[in-house]
Design goal:
Keywords: Disulfide bond, Glycoprotein, Immunoglobulin domain, Membrane, Repeat, Signal, Transmembrane, Transmembrane helix. The protein has 328 residues and is an alpha+beta fold. The protein contains three helices and 20 strands. Among the domains are: 117 residues, Immunoglobulins (Immunoglobulin-like), CATH 2.60.40.10; 89 residues, Immunoglobulins (Immunoglobulin-like), CATH 2.60.40. It has a six-stranded mixed β-sheet with strand order 2-11-10-5-6-7. The chain has a four-stranded antiparallel β-sheet with strand order 12-13-16-15, with no helix packed on it. Strands 3-9-8 form a three-stranded antiparallel β-sheet, with no helix packed on it.
C-alpha cells in the first residue's frame, strides 16, 4: 500500500511535464458556492469531469484545514488501476457516490460529518495523456453546529450615573453565532444613546444608568442551526439614598440610646425615693441618750423671785443619792 502515493505522484508530475504536448484537456467541475452540512449528517461533495478515460486514469480526493495552503492537503482516498483506496483519518467515513468513478462522476460522500471536517476539499482527476489542465476542483465545506447555551455575565458600576457591560458567549457553534440583547418586561427600554451592543462579540454597553435601567435582560445566540438564550437581572442602586438612609439610622440609634439612658435615670430616682429611712435598734447607742432612771431635766431654770438662774443638780449627785440606803 505504501507504493500508491509515490505512483500517483509520478503520474501527476508526468501530467505537468507534458503540458506543452498536444492532447485533450481534462475538465473538472465543482460547485462554485460553498457547501454546508449539519453535524452528524452525510455530506455529498459533487465533482464531475469530462475526459476520455484510459488505462492511466486516476482520481484523488484530499483535504486541507481552514487557513492553510493547498500544498499542505492530506489525502482522503485514491482510485487507480480500478481499485479504491480510502486513507487517512476519514477513511472509515469516506466513499464515492459512483464506484468505479469512470463515468464522469467523482462525487465524494462523507458520513457522520464533524466540526473537524470543515475545510477545503480537492477533487483531482489525472488522465494521461490529457495534459492541458491540472484537472483540479476545490470545494469549501462547512459543518453546521448549533450554538451552545450561552453564558451571561455583567461587570461595571451598577449605580445611578454609572456604566455596566453585559456579556454573552457560546462555547460552540458553526458558523459563529451572532448575539442580540433584548430587555424583558413592561419597563421602558433604555434610550438608544445609552445602549450599544456588538452582535459579533455579544457585548452590551449601558451608560448613564438610572433606576429605570434595572430589569431582566436576555441574550439570544443565533446561527443557521437554531437559537438559544441566557438571562441576567441588572439592579441599579442609588448611592445618595444609601447615604441618607445611613444618616437616618444613625440618628434613630442615637435617640434610642438617649431614651434608654433617661428611662434608667428616672427609674433609679424613683427607687431611691421609695427606699425606707434608716432606723436604730434597741441595742444602738445614741449620743444624746439618757441613762435609765434619770429623767431629763431642763438645763437651766429661772427663779421667779430673784430672777437668778438656779442650776439643777448634776446627774452624778442624783445618782449618788439614789444609791444611799434608806433609814427605817
Amino acid at each position: 500500500m505504501t507504493w500508491l502515493p509515490g505512483r500517483f505522484l509520478c503520474r501527476f508530475l508526468l501530467g505537468w511535464v507534458g503540458l506543452s504536448a498536444p492532447g485533450l484537456a481534462v475538465e473538472v467541475k465543482v460547485p462554485s458556492e460553498p457547501l454546508s452540512a449539519p453535524v452528524g449528517k452525510t455530506a455529498e461533495l459533487a465533482c464531475s469531469y469530462s475526459t476520455s478515460v484510459g488505462d492511466n486514469f486516476a482520481l484523488e480526493w484530499s483535504f486541507v484545514q481552514p487557513g492553510r495552503p493547498v500544498s499542505t492537503s492530506q489525502p482522503i482516498l485514491y482510485f487507480t488501476n480500478g481499485q479504491l483506496y480510502p486513507t487517512g483519518s476519514k477513511a472509515q467515513r469516506a466513499s464515492l457516490l459512483q464506484n468505479p468513478p469512470t463515468g464522469g462522476v467523482a462525487t465524494l460522500k462523507l458520513t457522520d460529518v464533524r466540526p473537524s471536517d470543515t475545510g477545503t476539499y480537492l477533487c483531482h482527476v489525472n488522465n494521461p495523456p490529457d495534459f492541458y489542465t491540472n484537472g483540479l476542483g476545490l470545494i469549501n465545506l462547512t459543518v453546521l453546529v448549533p450554538p451552545s447555551r450561552p453564558s451571561c455575565s455583567q461587570s461595571g458600576q451598577t449605580s445611578v450615573g454609572g456604566s455596566a457591560a453585559l456579556r454573552c458567549s457560546s462555547s460552540t457553534g458553526a458558523p459563529k453565532p451572532v448575539y442580540k440583547w433584548i430587555r424583558l418586561g413592561a419597563s421602558p427600554t433604555p434610550s438608544p444613546g445609552s445602549m450599544v451592543q456588538d452582535e459579533v462579540s455579544g457585548q452590551l454597553i449601558l451608560t448613564n444608568l438610572s433606576l429605570a435601567s434595572s430589569g431582566t435582560y436576555r441574550c439570544v445566540a443565533t446561527n443557521q442551526m437554531g437559537s438559544v438564550s441566557c438571562e441576567l437581572t441588572l439592579s441599579v442602586t442609588d448611592s445618595s439614598k444609601g447615604r441618607v438612609a445611613g444618616t437616618v439610622i444613625g440618628v434613630l440609634l442615637g435617640v434610642l440610646f438617649l431614651s434608654v439612658a433617661v428611662f434608667c435615670l428616672i427609674r433609679f430616682q424613683k427607687e431611691r425615693r421609695k427606699r425606707p429611712k434608716e432606723t436604730f435598734g434597741g441595742s444602738d447607742l445614741r449620743e444624746d441618750a439618757m441613762a435609765p432612771g434619770i429623767s431629763e431635766q431642763p438645763s437651766e431654770r429661772a427663779d421667779s423671785s430673784n430672777g437668778l438662774l438656779e442650776r439643777p443638780p448634776s446627774a452624778s449627785t442624783l445618782t449618788t443619792k439614789s444609791k444611799l440606803p434608806m433609814a427605817v
